[in-house]
Amino acid sequence: MRILPGLAVSMLLLAGPAWGQQTARPLDGMSSEQRADYQRLTRSYVDTFRILGRAKACGQSIERFEPFVSEIARRHGEKSELIALAALGFAAGAENRPLGPELEGPATPVPMPCDVIVYMKNLSLPDLPASLVSPQ
């Protein structure tokens, strides 16, 4: 049964270079639909980092903080506010505190139980919506 893990690693290596090659268009000049997609993407980033923070608080760290921050920086730029918002999401998850409706929607998310974190090991960043992909 050692073939399956080897196959999985091979598939990841083959998929690796293609992962995350798109960059986001600048916030300036976005249509209202694009801004709505951007807001949903922002909330998804915050949710993802909230899970990473909760995992750390539960002692089940998912080692993706740095790669995810790097990917956000690559997609949106090194000085993007999304990097700071991701860090806020991480801290909120670790400390079980709300961030407010602008970042979390109308209701603060219920903390994920620690025994569920083990199922989040394959956590990934949300895809960049097609409307936000910068024309090459």
Walkthrough of the structure:
- The N and C termini lie far apart (43 Å).
- The protein has helices at residues 3-15, 32-57, 65-76, 81-95, 101-104, 114-117.
- The protein has 136 residues and is mainly α.
- It has a domain at 30-124.
Features:
136 residues; mainly alpha; globular; 54% helix; disordered N terminus; 6 helices
Q: What's the rounded overall pLDDT mean?
A: 81
Main beta-sheet strand count, sense and barrel state: none
Taken from the alpha-carbon principal axes, the silhouette is: globular
Element-by-element helix/strand order: HHHHHH
Radius of gyration, taken over Cα atoms and rounded to an integer in Å: 16 Å
What is the tally of helical segments? Answer: 6
Gap between N and C termini: 43 Å
Instruction: Bin the helical content.
Output: 40-55%
Strand content: under 5%
Tell me the total number of β-strands.
Answer: 0
The structure class reads: mainly alpha
Topology (elements, then pairings):
Layout lengths: L2 H13 L16 H26 L7 H12 L4 H15 L5 H4 L9 H4 L19
Helix pairs in contact: 2-4
Care to give the gist of this entry?
The chain has about 140 residues and is mainly α.
